[in-house]
Amino acid sequence: MTTKAQTLILFGATGDLSRRMLLPSLCALDADELLPDELEIIGTARSDMSNSEFRNFAREAIEKFLPAERRGGMADFLNRLQYSALDVTTPEGYKELAEKVGEDREIAIFLSTAPSLFKPTIEGLAEAGLADETARICLEKPLGSDLESSCAINDAVAARFPEDRIFRIDHYLGKETVQNLIALRFANILFEPLWNSQHIDHVQITVAETVGLESRVDFYDGAGALRDMVQNHMLQLLALVAMEPPSSFDAGAVRDEKVKVLRALRELEDEESVTGQYRGGASGGKIVPGYDEELGKESDTETFVAIKAHIDNWRWQGVPFYMRTGKRLHERVTEIVVKFRSVPHSIFPDARLKPNTLVIGIQPEENISLSMMAKVPGIEHEGMTLREVPLDIRMPDAFTGKHKRIAYERLLLDLINGDQTLFVRRDEVEAQWKWIDAIRAGWEAEGKTPKTYTAGSWGPSASIALAERDGVSWHE
Ligand code: BG6
C-alpha cells in the first residue's frame, strides 16, 4: 500500500492517549512538514463538541505535552482538525461522520477506544461506507487479554479489513532506539557473525518503570505485568534481537522473521518465572504506597515479572533470554544487554578477562555501549594490567541537532503513508498470546502468587536468584 491517507479519523479523540501522544505527535509532524498537505483530521468521541472546542482541546494538549520548539505554526495544524460527536454503539453518528469525510478520500482510521468497542465501531464504519478499499485501520492495545479474546478482535476486524490494511500498534516499535537495533544488527558486519549461541552467553531485556498504578486501576489490576508489558513490548524487543536477517526492510520480510522467533519460544518450566507485587517504599525520590494500598484491596495481580526464556532454533540453542519488567522499580530504564562468551583461552594469566558486553540503552538514555578489555597505560615489571573500558555511542551526541521524537510520530506517519513494517501482524500477536497463555496456565496450576518487593528496589529477591542460579547477574 503506497497511497497516502487524505483523511485521518481518530476514535477516542478526547481520551488520554490522544491528548498525551496522538495530537502532539501529529502537530510535531506537521511542524516538520511531514504530513501530506491535504490531510484532514477528524476527531470523534461521545461528548458533544464543536470544531472550535475540539481545536481548543487540542491546543491545550499540545501546549502541555509538546515542547514549544516543536510546535511550529500550531494554527495551521489546528485548522486541519474537525470534530464529529459519535456514540460508536449506535448507527446514527456514522452518517454524519461519512458526510464530513466526503467522497473519494483515502482514509486512515485510528481506534484508541476500549477494545470492547472495536466490533461495533467497525460495523458502524462499514455500514456508512467507511471500510472499503480506500480505508486502513489502526488498532491500539490491549488487543485482547488472551489468545481467544485476541482472536475475537482480530476476526471482527478481518471481517471488514484485509490484513494489509490493518495496522496494530506496539508503540515500542516506534521508538528510535528500537529501530536502531535493526540498523545495528543489519547495517554492520561486526555483530552478525557473532550473533549466535557459539559467541553469545545470554541476553537480558529489562523494562523497568518507577511509576505505579497511575490512573489505570481497573485496567491494570485485570491485566498485570505479563499481559501489559511482556506479551507485547518485551516480546517484540526479543523478536528483533533474535530474528534471522530479513531479506529486505519491508513489512512482509521483517514480520516473517519475527514470527518465526515468537513461534520458537519454548514453554517455561515452573522455576523459570518469578512474579512480584510492590509494597510501600521510596521511588523516584518520594515515599509511595504499596500496590494493595493504591488499589484499596488485596490482589494477586503481578506488578513485576522476571522470566528465563529459550528460543528453540539452531541459532539460539542453549542461550537464555532473561527478561524482567515491573512498576515502582529502582529506576526507569529500558535496555537490552548482550553478554558475549569469554575468549576460549587467555594469554594473560594474571588478568581477569571479562566477556564483552553490548548494552543497547533504549530509554531514558539512548546509548549503545560495548565493553572491551584494554591495557591500562604504564610499564609493569611483568605482564600487562588489563581493564574493561566502554566503547560508547551516545546517540544524542552522535546526531546533534536531531530532536527526540515521540514514538507515535513515526507510527502515525507510517499509518498515513501506508507502511506496515513497524506494525504487528496477526500471526505475531497470536504467537505472543499463545506463549503468554501457557505461562499463565502454569502459574494457575502451580498456585503461584506474587512475592512482595519494596517500591524502589529491583523486584523480589527471587528474581535475582533466577539469574544467579545460572551464574548470571542482572545488569544494573
Ligand atoms: C504501556 C503499558 O503499553 O507501556 C504501561 O500499558 C507502561 O503500563 C507503558 O507504563 C510504558 O511505555 P514507555 O514508552 O513509557 O516505556
Please outline what is shown here.
With 476 residues, this protein is of the alpha/beta class. It folds into 2 domains: 7-140, NAD(P)-binding Rossmann-like Domain (Rossmann fold), CATH 3.40.50; 173-468, Dihydrodipicolinate Reductase, domain 2 (2-Layer Sandwich), CATH 3.30.360. It has 14 helices and 17 strands.
Pick out its properties.
476 residues; alpha/beta; Rossmann fold; Dihydrodipicolinate Reductase, domain 2; nine-stranded mixed beta sheet; six-stranded parallel beta sheet; binds 6-O-phosphono-beta-D-glucopyranose
Describe the structure.
This protein is of the alpha/beta class. It folds into 2 domains: 7-140, Rossmann fold, CATH 3.40.50.720; 173-468, Dihydrodipicolinate Reductase, domain 2 (2-Layer Sandwich), CATH 3.30.360.10. Helix content is 35%, strand content 21%. It contains 14 helices and 17 strands. The protein has helices spanning 16-31, 51-65, 74-79, 92-101, 118-127, 147-158, 176-186, 217-242, 251-263, 291-295, 395-398, 407-417, 426-446, 461-468; strands at 7-11, 40-45, 81-85, 107-111, 135-139, 166-168, 200-208, 273-279, 281-283, 286-288, 304-309, 321-326, 333-340, 357-363, 367-375, 386-394, 451-454. A hairpin with a 2-residue loop joins strand 9 and strand 10. The mean pLDDT is 94. Bound molecules: 6-O-phosphono-beta-D-glucopyranose. 6-O-phosphono-beta-D-glucopyranose binds next to loops.
